[in-house]
Amino acid sequence: MNWMIRLCIRGIVLVLFISLTTPLPAKETKGKGEIVLGMSTALSGPAADLGKNMKQGVLVGLERANRAGGIHGRSLKLIALDDGYEPTRTAPNMRKLIEQDGVLAVIGNVGTPTAIAAVPIANEQKTLLFAPFTGAGVLRKNPPDRYVINYRASYAEETAAMIDALIKTGKLRTDEIAFFTQRDGYGDAGFIGGITALKQHGLRDENTVVHARYERNTLAVENALANILIASPSPQAVIMVGAYAPCAKFIKLAVESGLEAMFLNVSFVGSAPLARELGNMSPQVIVTQVVPHPQEKTLSIVEEYRADLVKQFPSATPTFGSLEGYIASRIFIKALGKIQGQPNRENVINALESLGNFKVGLGHSLHLTKEKHQASHRVWPTILRKGDFVPFQWNDIPAILKGKK
């Protein structure tokens, strides 16, 4: 009998051990305390400025709500984890935020390759991925994924705006436009959008378009530049879909090599770090933006952003990236305010979808519904002047093309 008693005791101990060490199933934070949001972003590595700016903007927007008493008396908190712009780190970050930290939603993640890793987890865990800093099509399905909602214009819309201006206004031919892109989902998204736009302007064979690529998280751009330099005819415009450091190196080497071209970047490049990397150079560099200029004085949300930024980060410089994060958090907070009772992972999506046509102070209406999960389609062009990116009009393209020669 003694051996049976010992066996029973061992069984009881084993059950207790398993129950104490097995993680609890995923569930969101409950109770009347903080509303916790998550973010997996680049806080280190060559895209760190983008992640830090996005995080800063989201924090500034959340703190504005907290100063006003929070959401129905509950304060807002952000947990931001570093993924270094590498998808292999994004996936475990997403699972930690959702399963262990119990976040209500994930907001403001940075990057397309990281989004490709994040979207399946958001859908599997039925947790909202809101306003990621990417314009890739993988987040813009039709009909949309329930658990993915965007603020910004797509990369296809950004590259289409560039190509429309270059061909319609600048009178370039389709074979005078080349592409320099990152070799991953981000670069592919921009290139595919650009090719689609070129086909609308008569391009018949996409193999005639010069397309040079570099590896993500590297500065190895020399081979890509060589491909563009030997192209015939010589490109008059290079559309760039990359991070700021490799794009800046490419532009510097291209200018040193005598390439007389306009360099057009999508918003993800990061205007402030790109300008910093280029220093005193004065090539014709354009960046399309998905938010207004952060020094704009006629839009109420931009004025509020600058005032709130000073309150929380007195020494910070306003940037396009942090303004995007701020707008994202303001939209999210607007939806939270519509929820009666306890916010949860389902009713927060319902609240965002119920916004319909709405305004946040951008000077035009945004739109979110069950069928439409991208709030904004607006693109603002900016150009490098004296070390800073300033607004300009697409009608100025002919003069800019003339000035590069």
Which short descriptors sum up this protein?
Rossmann fold; alpha/beta; 2 domains; 405 residues; 7-stranded mixed β-sheet; 14 strands; 13 helices; disordered N terminus
Can you walk through the features of this model?
The chain has 405 residues and is an alpha/beta fold. It has two domains: 35-153 and 296-374, Response regulator (Rossmann fold, 3-Layer(aba) Sandwich), CATH 3.40.50.2300; 155-289 and 381-403, 3-Layer(aba) Sandwich (Rossmann fold), CATH 3.40.50.2300. 42% of the residues lie in helices and 15% in strands. The protein has 13 helices and 14 strands. It has helices at 2-21, 48-67, 87-100, 112-125, 155-169, 185-200, 222-229, 244-256, 271-278, 300-312, 320-336, 347-353, 397-403; strands spanning 35-41, 76-82, 105-107, 128-130, 148-149, 177-182, 211-214, 237-241, 262-265, 285-289, 356-358, 366-368, 380-385, 388-391. It has a seven-stranded mixed beta sheet with strand order 7-6-8-9-10-13-14, with helices on both faces. Strands 2-1-3-4-5 form a five-stranded parallel beta sheet, sandwiched between helices. A two-stranded antiparallel ribbon has the order 11-12. Strand 9 (262-265), helix 9 (271-278) and strand 10 (285-289) form a beta-alpha-beta unit. Helix 3 runs parallel beside helix 4 (112-125) and helix 5 (155-169) runs parallel beside helix 6 (185-200).
